[in-house]
Amino acid sequence: VVRQEKYRPSYHFSPKNGWMNDPNGMVYFEGRYHLFYQHHPFGTTWGPMHWGHAVSTDLVNWEEQPIALEPDGLGTIFSGSAVVDERDTSGFFEGKPGLVAIYTHHYSLPNTDQIRQYQSLAYSTDSGESWIKYAGNPVLEDEHCIDFRDPKVFWHEPTEQWVMVLACGQTVRIYHSPNLKEWVFASEFGHGIGSHDGVWECPDLFPLWVDGERSQVKWVMLVSIGDNPEIREGSRTQYFTGEFDGTTFVADVESEKVRWLDYGRDNYAGVCWSGIPAEDGRRLFMGWMSNWRYANQTPTERWRGAMSIPRELALETRKGTVALIQRPVRELDGLRTPVLSLTEPSSEEVQNALSALQLDCYELVAEFATAGDFGFKVRVSDEHEQETLVGYTSATQEVYVDRTRSGCSDFHEDFAGRHGASLGILPDRMDIRLYVDRSSIEVFFNRGQVVITDLIFPNREAKGLEICSAEEQVTLFSLELYALK
Ligand code: FRU
């Protein structure tokens, strides 16, 4: 068992047993966050999909629940969303609020290689404990669209109706409904814009204030793009900013060039929670920490797949354009045990302090001058045959994670490598916030402007941490380190 748990994350959600991919149906209701997920309980590779289920009161400590949705005569259960039907528009709840899940049924026609995908409903009258599939399923079909899946539904207050975004081939379709049961086509987005490197999946659409100004709202569309044998990066997620009037999404000019949510390889199919109370007001996101390129081959046993840490999304003006910013949720601070806190330390001081440590699960926050190259080596083994590099190159204003020698990587030829992004002209100082776990690293650069999420598979004993800044002129303003339980 110990050997099988070698890569088990300590503070990321992973299923006890079996396979997991996309987060599904993320909804907050009656004091609990629900996380459902694409799950194959009988194997550690992708198979007939179920919805697994976990609940949490703080987004950080999760308790796995019995499986919520199992395959039936209409098919297996693909990705989808869940909403709080506050006004019982569906009529499932005798006038009270209740939870409705909207998901894709995936059906393989017997004795052919043909498939059908259509949208269905399930509801819960006991706060998510048990689920009843709607007798009128499916509620939305289109025989002309083969890849027709991953409904994300939200209530659009100004037009007082439900809105669904749905992936259809390489576009996103928008539908309307008064009651979640009857859906009418409204518009289609995606022709001639964005990346079309693969089939479009798992869309989301939501408003955010720009720079925290309540008078300035923009809409964000997330679209994940499936694996394509010709694209080395594999599956990844793009985003658009724009305007939405309840019917049509119109992208900003900035969104005419492709914009990535994450510059690592392992943040896919992520969407946001629904049902977050207005007094909280946050837009909370979680992604699947893997990549279809190699997801079925990662070297875990008994279980496979983990979620990213929960993140808060924001829109901020950076370099004159409105950009999507990600920050770890504050609830994660509850896991902290302070290890180090240094102010304007010399390189030598940092080196000495770090060399005394052995850590595998931690958060590191550093602020440094952007005049010189700067970085850390994490999960370093005794002889340095394993190490993962995180850093910043001043000449190119590039940040990166290099997992070339991060540990086990021979399960797929595209796993090892260096993943970088250019930040453009920067202020004199910049921060790096780094979350390391047993099999992942998530790095937030320059207050969440660029994020790199990467899986790594180091040995359990590879627990060294080093600073790399050969040049004398590098200035570290502060460094904080917390062990995370
Ligand atoms: C995205 C995805 C979805 C689909 C699900 C199947 O990773 O391919 O489009 O609903 O996974 O498990």
From TrEMBL:
InterPro entries, A to Z: ConA-like_dom_sf, Glyco_hydro_32, Glyco_hydro_32_AS, Glyco_hydro_32_C, Glyco_hydro_32_N, Glyco_hydro_beta-prop_sf
UniProt keywords, alphabetically: Glycosidase, Hydrolase
Span of domain Glycosyl hydrolase family 32 N-terminal: 12-328
Keyword Hydrolase appears in the UniProt entry: yes
Family in the record: Belongs to the glycosyl hydrolase 32 family.
GO MF annotations, alphabetized: hydrolase activity
SMART domains: Glyco_32
Coiled coil: none
Protein name stated in the entry: Glycoside hydrolase family 32 protein
Annotated Glycosyl hydrolase family 32 C-terminal domain residues: 331-482
Regions that span the bilayer: none
